[in-house]
């Protein structure tokens, strides 16, 4: 046990390599709290049928499970595959802010005016010409 603690301390990073983003030794604990708060905010502010809620709930629940099941930040970073653990904290904080904005905007409601014809055609796959 003592040897593994020494190895863990020796392997801790001293910098994120990102200007303005310091190493956060409490990032895992913060992530657990932030992910739980995100799920609660979604449940209380966004309708269940909203695609935004469904997407964010699925991603957040997955990430929460990864963080709860792993104590090593490098393992968390590898399994989540969305940046360093400090970046995940920033992303989670930003998502909580966005939930409030989405609730304010009510983005799940129908448009006040119908979209013009062919509005979304640029999303279709371009036909290949030979």
Automatic annotation (TrEMBL):
Recorded topology in the membrane: Peripheral membrane protein
Superkingdom, natural source: Eukaryota
Q: Name one GO biological process term.
A: respiratory electron transport chain
Write out the entry's keywords from A to Z: Electron transport, Membrane, Mitochondrion, Mitochondrion inner membrane, Respiratory chain, Transport
Q: Name one GO cellular component term.
A: mitochondrial inner membrane
Localization in the cell: Mitochondrion inner membrane
Q: Does the keyword Transport apply?
A: yes
Can you tell me which family this protein belongs to? Belongs to the complex I NDUFA5 subunit family.
Question: What is the name listed in the Swiss-Prot or TrEMBL entry for this protein?
Answer: NADH dehydrogenase [ubiquinone] 1 alpha subcomplex subunit 5
Q: Which species is this UniProt entry from?
A: Coemansia guatemalensis
């Amino acid at each position: 046990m003592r040897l593994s603690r020494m190895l863990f301390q020796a392997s801790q990073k001293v910098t994120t390599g990102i200007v303005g983003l310091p190493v956060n030794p409490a990032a895992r604990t913060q992530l657990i709290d932030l992910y739980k708060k995100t799920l609660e905010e979604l449940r209380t502010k966004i309708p269940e049928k909203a695609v935004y809620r469904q997407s964010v709930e699925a991603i957040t629940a997955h990430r929460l499970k990864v963080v709860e099941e792993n104590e090593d930040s490098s393992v968390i970073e590898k399994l989540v595959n969305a940046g360093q653990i400090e970046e995940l904290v920033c992303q989670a904080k930003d998502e909580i802010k966005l939930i409030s904005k989405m609730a304010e905007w009510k983005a799940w409601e129908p448009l006040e005016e119908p979209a013009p014809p062919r509005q979304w055609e640029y999303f279709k796959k371009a036909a290949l010409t030979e």
